[in-house]
């Protein structure tokens, strides 16, 4: 059964379905978002169960890539499907992205279009349009759920106040309307956006706020595996634990230090581009070097360039070269043990005729390289799919593993060798004093 049928028909080596890696795709499962989903459903339940003359509002708040849009869309999709199948009362679910529909008029027009109305661009005032659209939906006996995404922008632009006021006071403004309305308003920076809104709006909007925190690396691992296994976006055999952990560790949020992006979109993007890079090279598996290549292409807010490497101290470069050499020797591995690094580093020093630093200094230098973003260190662990077992306390150097995730080793190795040789030559010629 070398060529089974499940998805191999597209003839690609690694990617099974490109669409499933795009932003618009709503994944079949949303790991680590169960609380947010349950909370939303409980707030909206009267609305999707058909109760009239009610308004229920939920506000989503959280940084980029934390699943706000995905959760809202997946809830909307599910409610719509149940309603279409006759398992729930008739409902209209309208998804409106405020980046696309920026004014009150445009938002209402989109709502009208979603309900099947054809609305001219002119000829209506936005008040008339409000009446017209909402009456239309109401007359059909539908309830309504509006997902207003990226609402930050609408809060900042002129008539956001007006729009949110109308939505939050529907039953007072249009007393003849009977339908029940559910509102999910999504903000990236809630506190900042609220400052742009009038007090009256803020108070009438007084809704439950559902928080979306950045994802930790182990949560990102689950999300990435889920996209591979449940959604079948990528061939499972093409991806190793090492690859997923590499991406998740680099992007994951660390609560203790409050560092790391915790952004699922970026982690999926890295996986996707690494898969493309591997395919482009005619490979059947994604290798750490493909991930490094992608990480260095500017998908991360800070990435490493030649100038940054030049600025490192000599022993920082020597240690980095030692890690590079070890990783180059093992194509499929993304991390090497700290003990091995020390041995390799001593070897590198010998080759360049340089006296190696003591162990504690090497360890400090590694920590510095980590802070500078050159090295990605993790605590040694045994991983098996989706679960991570720490085998030691954090920062214990013997159990640490280090990797280089943000720049291709082939590029790094060359820059380091050139730069180290140049520095040592300059020193020999007496142009540069030895460091410490
Ligand atoms: N828990 C999750 N499980 C599976 N996929 C997820 C999860 N969270 C986010 N994603 C995926 O990550 C990407 C980004 O998520 P989403 O668009 O929901 O972020 P967001 O919070 O709306 O960010 P922004 O504020 O930038 O709009 C999407 O492709 C989404 O499918
Ligand atoms: Mg979003």
SSE order and pairing:
Blueprint: H1 34-48, E1 55-61, H2 68-84, E2 91-97, H3 104-114, H4 126-139, E3 143-149, H5 151-156, H6 160-168, H7 170-173, E4 181-187, H8 190-194, H9 199-204, E5 208-211, H10 217-229, H11 241-251, H12 264-280, H13 288-299, H14 306-310, H15 314-329, E6 336-337, H16 338-351, H17 359-371, E7 376-379, E8 381-384, E9 387-390, E10 400-403, H18 409-428
Parallel strand pairs: 1-4, 1-5, 2-3, 3-4
Antiparallel strand pairs: 6-10, 7-10, 8-9
Helix pairs in contact: 1-2, 3-4, 10-11, 11-12, 12-13, 15-16, 15-17, 15-18
The chain binds adenosine-5'-triphosphate (ATP) and magnesium ion.
The site of magnesium ion has 3 residues, from helix 2.
Pfam family, one: WHD_Cdc6
Keywords: ATP-binding, Cell cycle, Cell division, DNA replication, Nucleotide-binding
Family: Belongs to the CDC6/cdc18 family.
Report on the structure:
With 436 residues, the chain is α/β, with parallel strands linked by helices. It folds into three domains: 34-211, Rossmann fold; 216-299, Orthogonal Bundle (Helicase, Ruva Protein, domain 3); 306-428, Orthogonal Bundle (Arc Repressor Mutant, subunit A). It is 48% helix and 11% strand. It has 18 helices and ten strands. The chain has helices at 34-48, 68-84, 104-114, 126-139, 151-156, 160-168, 170-173, 190-194, 199-204, 217-229, 241-251, 264-280, 288-299, 306-310, 314-329, 338-351, 359-371, 409-428; strands at 55-61, 91-97, 143-149, 181-187, 208-211, 336-337, 376-379, 381-384, 387-390, 400-403. It has a five-stranded parallel sheet, sandwiched between helices. β8 (381-384) and β9 form a beta hairpin. α12 (264-280) packs across α13. Mean pLDDT is 89; it is low at 1-7 and 382-395. Magnesium ion (MG) is lined by residues 68-69, 149.
